[in-house]
Amino acid sequence: MRINTNYHQLSGRYLFAEIAQQVSAYKAAHPEAQLIRLGIGDVTQPLPPAAINAMHRAVDEYADTKTFHGYGPEQGYDFLINAIIAHDFVPRGIQLDRDEVFVSDGAKSDTGNIGDILAVDNIVGITDPVYPVYVDTNVMAGRTLRYIPCHADNDFTGDIPTQHLDIIYLCYPNNPTGAVITREKLAAWVEYALRHKAVILYDAAYEAFISDDSLPHSIYEIEGAKQCAIEFRSFSKTAGFTGVRCGYTVIPKTLKAEDGTSLNALWNRRQCSKFNGASYISQRGAEAIYSPKGQQEVRDIIGRYKANAAYIRQSLADMGLTVYGGQHSPYIWVSTPDGEDSWHFFRRLLNDANVVVTPGEGFGTHGEGYVRITAFGTADDSRAAVARIKKIL
Ligand code: MLT
Questions:
Q1: Cis amide linkage into residue 46, ω under 30° from 0
Q2: What is the CATH number of domain 50-291?
Q3: Which ranges in the chain are annotated with CATH 3.90.1150.10?
Q4: Segments of the chain assigned to CATH 3.40.640.10
Q5: Which of 146, 174, 229, 368 suits a disulfide with 179, CB 3.0-4.6 Å?
Q6: Prediction pTM value
Q7: Ligand 1 centre distance from Cα of residue 62 (Å)
Q8: What integer pLDDT is reported at residue 278 of this predicted model?
Q9: pLDDT value at position 21?
Q10: Which of these, 274, 187, 185, lies nearest to 222 by C-alpha position?
Q11: Before 129, cis peptide (omega within 30)?
Q12: Ligand 1 atom with least separation from CA of 40
């Protein structure tokens, strides 16, 4: 037996596992420390009551042979797919067929697994800094990566490449920089993809944080995108489902590979063989967030996180730090003081302030000189973290 030696090319640990390990080691050595964790983008607010009630009802259905559920459709239940199309796309002028939406257990799995249906010799364009899942899963597959530098001068949206790429990962609002992309810039990426017969893998997990109507929530708001883009969405950051697990992926039937093969058909084939569907309970919970009550509750939760983001952003700026993001995103991307090494600043914040953030270098070379702070903590923790950071600067 031999292993997939591509795994030897990965960095030692997954970024958030590495941070968790360093934080655990610190905690073991300093059990009295009251850590504030603003590193991994994990939510803290309770789920919307509409989702809780729907999931309770769904659990009760399992108690009776008449309402019991076994395996569900690999693609997801129609009740959820219909709600997704009606609420997330139709109001933006996007028509989708039911079989263009695949419900999943979250965007992380799907952005990684999508590589199953794409050839290993595709050249992959990865924005840098980037959500490490895109890098790791392509390294595992043995694909060649080309990095697209993202920095303040290009608004963290990358310059349109002059060389050929087959696959391009884009994520807006961006993880980790919190940047957004304008309609015009996204249209330029779509134009590039159509010209190069490339596919854009568009991660829109944070679209619910957009509060400027001129910004696109979906890549399908751009003409031509249905011929060149797959979109990933998640209920994790919208409705607090990081632990519940539910998301979805849109693959238009008009999206074809160079040889004419339908990516929609291929993904369906892949899912039927490798995936048994997200749980009925989580899908009922997700459906409930589209009810008028659920929508209001989600808006309230996101409003809390956005208030944290605004507070953190403004407070750090007041301390003289250069800050990005945090306006249409739960992430604040902060220049380290005096260009301090990002892992060094991470350790200084951990040791001296007991605040956990994410070092920018962990997201790629162009993340060096920054740290990422999440607004997903509680309001109290966000305020306390800012006060502690102020003290050590
Ligand atoms: C992050 O912190 O970047 C995210 O929480 C990771 C994820 O969504 O998987």
A1: no
A2: 3.40.640.10
A3: 5-46+293-392
A4: 50-291
A5: 174
A6: 0.97
A7: 32
A8: 97
A9: 95
A10: 187
A11: yes
A12: 2
| Intervals of the chain under pLDDT 50 | none
Ligand 1 centroid to residue 64 C-alpha, Å? 37
pLDDT (tens digit per residue) in 93-140 = 999 999 999 999 999 999 999 999 999 999 999 999 999 999 999 999
Tell how far the Cα of 41 is from the centroid of ligand 1, in angstroms. Answer: 5
CATH class of 5-46+293-392: alpha beta
Q: How far apart are CA 238 and CA 100, in angstroms?
A: 21
**Nearby residues of 251 by Cβ (< 8 Å), 6 or more positions away:** 100, 102, 230, 263, 264, 267
Using the mean position of ligand 1's atoms as its centre, give its distance from the Cα of residue 69 in Å. Answer: 31
Tell me the best of 19, 23, 40 to mutate to test the pocket of ligand 1, counting ligand atoms within 8 Å of each CB and taking the most: 40
175, 177, 241: residue to mutate for ligand 1 pocket, most atoms within 8 A of CB = 175
Of 203, 291, 293, 286, nearest to 245 by C-alpha is 286
